[in-house]
Amino acid sequence: MATAVFMPKLSMTMETGTVIQWFKQEGDLVREGDVLLEVLTDKINIEVESYSTGTLLKIYYGPDQVVPVNQVIGYVGEASEVVPDIAPSAEPHSSTEATEVQNEQKENHETRERESVGQKIRATPVARRIAKDNEIDLSLVNGTGPNGRVQKVDIEQAVAARSAKPISTQPETTTEPRSRKVKVEGMRKVIAERMAVSANTAPHVTLSTEADMSQVMEVRSTLLPTIEKMTGHRLSYTEIIMKAVATALSRHPKVNASLKDDVIELHETINVGLAVAVTDGLLVPVIKQADRKGLADLTTETKRVAGLARDGRLLPDDMRGGTFTISNLGMYAIDVFTPIINQPESAILGVGRIHEKPVGVNGQIVLRPMMSLSLSFDHRVMDGAPAAAFLQEIKELLESPYHLLA
Amino acid sequence: MSTPRELTYLEAVRECMSQEMRVNEDVFIMGEDIGLYGGAFGVTRGMLEEFGKERVRNTPISEAAIAGAAVGAAMTGMRPIVELQFSDFITIATDQIVNQAAKNRYMFGGKGKVPLVLRTPSGSGTGAAAQHSQSLEAWMAHIPGLKVIQPSTAYDAKGLLKAAIDDDNPVIFYEHKLLYRTKGHVPEESYSLPIGKADIKRAGTDVTIVATAIMVHKALQAAVELEKEGISVEIIDPRTLVPLDIETIVESVKKTGRVVVVHEAVKRGGFGGEIASLIAESEAFDYLDAPIKRLGGKSVPIPYNPVLEKAAIPQEQDIIQAVKDTVFRR
């Protein structure tokens, strides 16, 4: 087992060294610790000792030759061993075994690189096949399967990303974070455009308050079995909130409005949109004439459109004609957020989670299920006070929900 | 247009036997209590009246004797259809089936044929406990010389039984007890389905379920639920384990890249392992995007307690979970 003798790196800045003299000749026996040669760096002369015991088999560079650091400059091993006739090229991680060195010389750089990392890659067979067909280096693909296993979907994304922009040939050495590119198209494009237009044209003001949901919870649990029997669906807070919003809209017609050019259009119909998260986007199916519907009808209708939205089967008519939108993030740990108005509507209500908080009631601190309400409104259409009155109406309706049943 | 005629699985089996016996004098049936009583599950009810005692033969309670007599009858030119009351009792007839029926054609250099069909109810779900509820098809599938069929629908049962009766080799024909009452479209005329041709019971794109017998139906239900979550399931019913239509399975796996194999028999040593291995050995390997998943019965004797009996074999929810594990995406 021949051991390579390397040009040592003797300082942080050292890139090359100059051989001054060898103290041993090819064929000499050397012991570990024996001084082999003297090297000149940019600063000092230093004696290089042997790390192994054996015969000095080969000396590649003689006096005054300048050699890069980590370059093999000789071999120590058993007398009968065969080592390369010419020095292997400088390779920081190259093997120290002569036989492997010989093999490596036959292989190209790319193969060796892949082997050095290949053993740790977990990838499914199909991922490996597609990677091979597309000449994608598996080690550069981020696996999303169990234990980071590279799956078909990961490779397909890598292929897509590469066709968008060629993968750098030396990604390991770059310091840029890895990323993949997803084209903004379809629903994403529509959402992007509409949100930008809304945010840029309508001066948004967001008001927020909290409603004590104790009584809503009572109403819900009371009506739950009845409505389930009537509709086959479970009454959720969404429908009660929608009922409160629709009722409040009927009492605050200025909020149920659209601005078109110089005209504020006050809608006589109250159609409440419900933002529904779907794969890769957001849809807003509209519950028509929500103010005229009871909780059972709202439940049926909400479940229907939400289901259609998730299945991607909403018809254009299901999404047309909204006059106000509710965006409910109550299923997440969200308290307050600033929703962007769904144009051409004039306001949007953001609903946060219900959770118990200490509140002051008659001089006592008690825990109450509180829910935050955030109303973004278009300041071109209305001012703070009427918007605040509207939001307060919603809060009051939710705090005394039996009024909704009147 | 008239609506397609529906028969139960049990009636489909009976109709096939009756039709074959009407056209072929050599076909006869034998088994314990298959005459007046109509067999343990009533499959042969009414056949004694039409065909008489000579062709609907009640036998003593000795599966070894029944199978032995059937092998002899088959080799002398008859085409016996044997009914074993429960497939568990194959153990008693094993020497006749494994060492005689399966080997004779080979050992006599092709001079003797063994056109024998052994029909037998298998599977759990009837509260018949450990000695009457097993699924032992993998044992028979292991024996060279035997064909093994496991139909899952009334239509398949009639067509495959006809093919089994027409076959010159011994065929073990497993009928699942819980399928006897299931109904399906069955044409009135006699027809034959090829032995060794799998059936795609449902087309899909995300994952292939290879299911046998009653598991085909559980998989179909699971597929409906999975569809709601956006997972498209293809279901392949091999219908015949020997010979096995591996091509259809491989083609499906190449399409979906993921596979769950499900059977009622105990998973360890079950036929699912054979299917999984064949897939892994095939060209489908390079299309796999997840490990092949096997679902089978637990390694316990089938319990008498109905809750435990259910727990011992894969249920719809288990299939749903297995599919979700297989289509895992983080």
From TrEMBL, chain A:
Enzyme Commission identifier(s): 2.3.1.-
Basic and acidic residues bias: start-end ranges: 103-117
Residue stretches making up the Lipoyl-binding domain: 2-77
Listed Pfam families: 2-oxoacid_dh, Biotin_lipoyl, E3_binding
Keyword Heme: no
Superkingdom of this protein's organism: Bacteria
Domain Peripheral subunit-binding (PSBD): 122-159
Enzyme class, spelled out: transferase
Cofactor: (R)-lipoate
Compositionally skewed regions (Polar residues) per UniProt: 92-102
Key words, A-Z: Acyltransferase, Lipoyl, Transferase
Region named Disordered: 86-122, 160-180
Entry's family note: Belongs to the 2-oxoacid dehydrogenase family.
PANTHER family for the chain: DIHYDROLIPOAMIDE ACETYLTRANSFERASE COMPONENT OF PYRUVATE DEHYDROGENASE COMPLEX, LIPOAMIDE ACYLTRANSFERASE COMPONENT OF BRANCHED-CHAIN ALPHA-KETO ACID DEHYDROGENASE COMPLEX, MITOCHONDRIAL
Protein name: Dihydrolipoamide acetyltransferase component of pyruvate dehydrogenase complex
Organism (species): Brevibacillus choshinensis
